[in-house]
Amino acid sequence: MRINKFIAQLGLASRREADRLIELRLILVNNKVVELGQQIEVGDELSYKGKTYQFNEKQKHSYYAFNKPSNVVCTCAEDEPNNIISYIQKRYPETKKTRLYPVGRLDKNSRGLILLTNDGDLSQTLSHPKHEHEKEYLVTCTDKIDYAFIEAFCKGVTIYKEDEGEDDERVKTKPCKAKFVNSRQFTCILEQGYKRQIRKMVVELNNRVKDLQRIRIAGLKLANLAESELIKLEYSDIFADD
Question: Residue 171 sits in which domain range?
Fold first, then answer.
């Protein structure tokens, strides 16, 4: 297996970021600096930031669904006091036995369904837009909405790709599905995921998001999962109704 893929499976970084770490000579295997494209063999030990991980080709994958509350940050970075991994480990100590990482992101102020796993291939499949796995959200706006708002949202909205600034690129979002719920709420289904995309789309349509909750990832639904509740899954659960 290529080392960058193993690093992604560990949840340490994406494959692209892993290549950057390798170029910076921050990755060791069996105490030797590695090169781009290098393979890792069963029994080899990879070291990064003073921690060691042994490669086992038959690594067991774990899958969890979590109902993230607001103010929890979807990062594994230990220097972030509200990082999602520490938050979960305090409430579910048994998860310390497996190195988990979140698939995709929900911004700090958003809440709802997050999938956590140590399966790098699954993370890549669910996160990359080319695979077109749906993510569904319930959006509550500060001001009233109408069917014209829903129609405009569905057609796609031109937003800043990153945070607004002089050099930021403006892009038009893909057409999507959205459904009117009531005068201040709607649901929407996206297959792409620019940073804070829904919030930016709503602002461009002259409104603001009061609450944003993810209620589905592929075939996995939030359903009756209580806030801050974590449940273990089988792989098949993730695509059950997809």
Answer: 134-217
Q: How many domains does the chain have?
A: 3
In the chain, the DSSP E strands lie at: 28-29, 32-33, 45-48, 51-54, 63-68, 101-103, 111-117, 135-141, 158-160, 170-172, 177-182, 185-190, 209-217, 220-221, 230-233
Report the CATH number at residue 167.
3.30.70.1560
Among the options 44, 79, 107, 167, which is catalytic? Answer: 107
The whole-number pLDDT of residue 54 equals: 81
Whether residue 79 is predicted with pLDDT greater than 90 in this model: the reply is: no
Q: Which tens digits make up the pLDDT trace of 32-47?
A: 999 998 998 888 899 9
- Report the CATH number that the domain containing residue 83 is assigned in CATH: 3.30.70.580
Is residue 107 flagged as an active site residue? Answer: yes
pTM listed for this prediction = 0.76
Residue 130: the pLDDT is: 59
